[in-house]
Amino acid sequence: MRMEQPKEAKNNRFANILPVMRYFYAVAWRTSKPYFLTVLADMLMKGVSPFINIILPKFLIDELIGLRRVDVLVWLVAAIVLANAAVYVLNNFLSYFQNRFRTPIDNQITAMLAEKAMNLDFACTENAAVLTQLEKAKTGISWYSGGVGGLSGALTSVVSGTITMLGTVFILGMLSPLLIALLFVIIAGSVWITYLSEKQQAKFMKELVGVNRKFGYYFGLVKGFQYGKDIRLYGADALVLDRTDRYIREDWTQEQGLIRLRQKYTLIRTGINAVQQVLLYGYLGLRVLSGAIGIGDFQMLISSAVSFTGSLSGLLGQVVSLARICDFMNDYRLFMQYPSEQREGTRSIDMTAPHTFSFRDVSFSYPQSEALSLKHVTLDIPAGQKLSIVGLNGAGKTTFIKLLMRLYDPTGGRSSWTGWTSGSTIWSSTANCSPSYSRTTACSPSPLRRTSR
Amino acid sequence: MKGWGSLHGNRHTAKREKKKEKPRYSNFSNVGFVLQAIRRYDKALVFLLIVNILFTTMGSFVPVVMPKLIIDELTGAGSPVYVIGLSVAFGLLLLIANGVSQCADISISGRFIAVRLRLIAQSGAKFMGMDFQNLEDPKVLDLSQKADRATNNNNEGLEGIMHRVQWGAGRLVTLLSVAAVIATLNPLLLLAFGALLLVNFAASTYTRKKDKKVWDELAPVNRKLWYLEQTAKDFSYGKDVRLFAMREFLHGRLEGEQRRQFMSFVRLWKLWLHNGNLMAATSLLQEVLLYAWLCWKMLDGAIGIGDFTMYAAAIRTFSSAMGGLLDDISAVRQQNEVVCDFREFLAYPDRTQGSLPVPDSAMSDGLCFTFEHVSFRYPGQEAYALRDVSFTIRPGERLAVVGLNGAGKTTFIKLLMRLYEPTQGRILLNGVDVASYDKASYYRLFSAVFQDIQMFAFTVAENVSMQAYAATDMDRVHASLDKAGLADKIAALPQGIDQTVLKVIDEGGVEFSGGESQKLALARALYKNAPVIVLDEPTAALDALAEERLYRQFDSLTRGKSAVYISHRLASTQFCDRIALFEDGRICAIGSHQELMEKEGRYAEIFRMQARYYKEEAAV
């Protein structure tokens, strides 16, 4: 049986989002339905709650500079304060229930992976690619993505960010549509700058990979227990310290390049931010003076605009991070696609009858290799026989045993057995077999050797 | 199953007892240590930190004050020119404050990393300067590893403290200046807010303590879970899992432990839920106080709407700075443990040293080492590895040290080379106790090749000389490589002796085979050209005949020097002047091969036994 590598995802960085969400939310649906309620509530809360502090203070301010009715003021203050407190408490409960309903899903995902690893077709467990995929699945589902919690968190950011953005657009559009256009220009500028800076930083980061490898080596060297003798006897500590010192200076030169780059883009971004503040306060201030809006509106629009730019420019980053999380979690999904143990054959074995194992012209080659590991083996193992299998490394001893136990099935020929008793013993070894068990069938008798070690 | 559980239980309690130890350095002392390191390694960093703190404070003041001025203008005189002017000033001030503080911050973060690397190097220098004996002491290795946790990332340990000190100082300055502004209007309000924050802090501390308790209780469950998950996912257990049908069993255990973990988690979440709700209550109280007071003042006519917004913003700045500061403080406290480990490691004693250099006359007179009733016990062990050994290595002698594994051969030569110090007894060099010699100068006496040959990711030349490039004698490198039989291999490398060894640093680096590594190690010993040669079974992978060939070859290369050859194969050292057979930490026979065979003692017995296998081996 040849192993098929599970299909790789398309090269699009967003391609994994939908399949991954479908896969994991299906598991979640089977395991813990209330979880969906908590996630939806969370999205709504995070999307809507900013508006409490955008809208309500407007009325407070208007009342304070306008009619100044004490009872209305008390009501307004109570509304603001209580609404904020309610959001706070609701958030607490939401995170409590999210934990509570999400953990069974996390546990289920962990258990499924463990189950799958134990259930894999045995040939897969000796395949390096599968092992690598298992490692990727393990890290992909835990640290790198945060699991279902991480996925939902990223999704919540995207949805709630969209809600906030749409709400603020509505407010701005009602009172000062021109501002939206202004802010768009500013946001476009800052997104462009972020893009440029990320691109250039990515280049640096690539160079830093080599630097990090050196870091690992040199600092493993100074504290490497195994080098202790040589470093002392050959007086090499000066050489080693010279090298770490040189590394630190090299690293610092690299780091300085990165620092200058970051400073440059930070200055540009701070500049854009300052321009935004000038435009906001200047433009809205003039609108107040022209009588188009009141002071309350002025405050509200400023809060809305800040919220709007924040949510819109954050949105892109959140979608990217959602895609990254899905990429990591996709490794889990890919691992789960490997074939499970083949259990064809339906007959059960009568454990009481005497048995004979027979190999008839059995040949075998491992899935990844062309060469035959066993070639036309024909052999009977009668009931109660003690069999010793000897031979040099790579002669096929272990393969033979694996076939006997059906961890693998023959690629050619046929093995069969009749019955079973507990009496038979099989020994397989390069050298250490004890002569008392030998009724040697293969290769030449091997002498006892190497008493020590 | 019971045994398994209790095993983990024991380890668990042992760990907890250890946790109860008092911290060895105070928080203040640790912050002081970090600041000193910053000052020592990077003076410019101190200046940058001050700049960063000042401009951060400015950055939190500008958005508090400027909107007030603008609103005052809007509700007062209402001059468009002033409004525009103030807006522009607002933008400029923001640009200056944030631009400077953020640029400084970026530079500071980079420099913090460099300081951390210097601290790692400092800890590495410490490690290399320690007695070798300590390197085999589990307690010291454990401490060294724990110390590494203080320097292994950007957000915790020493660098974590650096960041927290930076942020904490910035917040403290902001806090004090905002507090001064608020206090001019109403110090009582300030007091009330401070009190509320302290309540929050106390509650968090309490919750965190409880949280830790639950985690401690959970530790055995987590360990079992971890073990079960690892086992299930470990393919090397694949055969056993399948043949012994362990799937259902493991799966059942996993689910059971998951359930237990979940129950504890629910307790934790409830704990934090309560804590969160208390926070909500105090924040409600704070907001009520704030708005009530501000509204009352406004109705009273004491402040305008501009002041209203300013004070609201000021108090929020105050709260967030205070909350941040408390967070910084608790973070610094959290790092205390690992920083203590780090400092304790640095404070560990250096090499035990004699101060005398080994006199040059010793070299020309010939070296005579005498063991006087030397016993040795590994740190933390009851049994002696070497017992009451007394004998002399004569100048120019070729000595073989033989014996079965664990007989004390390697311990013996480590004592000879002063990698270990005797537990009892003393070692004399030409009549002088070697403990009185400076270690570095004593180490110059030995050219040693060990079983585990270490290659370094330096150039070939540096691997031979073990000195920096500038201090390396290239002709001698060539000569040594030539004698060791590695010259052709090196000549075939694109960069010759300047080629880097290993692929870790340089992807074009050369990887030597086992045999080549051995030759390189010989070249290293030849380059050093020390008066005493020590070969500690560098040939374990070879058969006895090849080993003997190698020993003889080496012997001919080092004529006239004292040499100690170690082997567990008696056949390979027959050519030596004297053979010392070690058994159970003692020398049980000593003499030439001829003499020992004639004695018909233990030596002859082992020799014959081994010889039989070699014959068979040779026959195969």
Describe this protein's structure.
The complex is a heterodimer of chains A (453) and B (620). With 453 residues, chain A is mainly α. Chain A has two domains: 17-336, Up-down Bundle (ABC transporter transmembrane region fold), CATH 1.20.1560.10; 356-437, P-loop containing nucleotide triphosphate hydrolases (Rossmann fold, 3-Layer(aba) Sandwich). Chain A contains twelve helices and five strands. In chain A, helix 6 packs antiparallel against helix 11 (295-336), helix 7 (147-175) runs antiparallel to helix 8 and helix 10 (237-289) packs across helix 11. Chain A is elongated. Chain A starts with 16 loop residues before the first helix and ends in a 24-residue tail after the last strand. Chain B has 620 residues and is an alpha/beta fold. Helix content of chain B is 65%, strand content 9%. In chain B, a hairpin with a 2-residue loop joins strand 4 and strand 5 (432-433). In chain B, helix 7 runs antiparallel to helix 11 and helix 17 crosses helix 19 (514-528). The radius of gyration of chain B is 35 Å and the shape is elongated. The two termini of chain B are 47 Å apart. Mean pLDDT of chain B is 85; it is low at 1-20.
The third-level CATH topology of the largest domain in chain A is ABC transporter transmembrane region fold
Largest interface: A-B, 112 and 116 residues
- Silhouette of chain B: elongated
Give the CATH superfamily of the domain at 25-346 in chain B. Answer: ABC transporter type 1, transmembrane domain
- Tally of contiguous helical segments of chain A: 12
Report the average pLDDT across residues of chain A: 82
Rounded to the nearest angstrom, the distance between the terminal CA atoms of chain A is 40 Å
CATH architecture of the largest domain in chain A: Up-down Bundle
Decide which structural class fits the backbone of chain A: mainly alpha
Given as residue ranges, the uncertain stretches of chain A (5+ residues, pLDDT < 50) are: 1-10, 419-424, 429-453
**What's the multimeric state?**
heterodimer
The overall strand count of chain B is 10
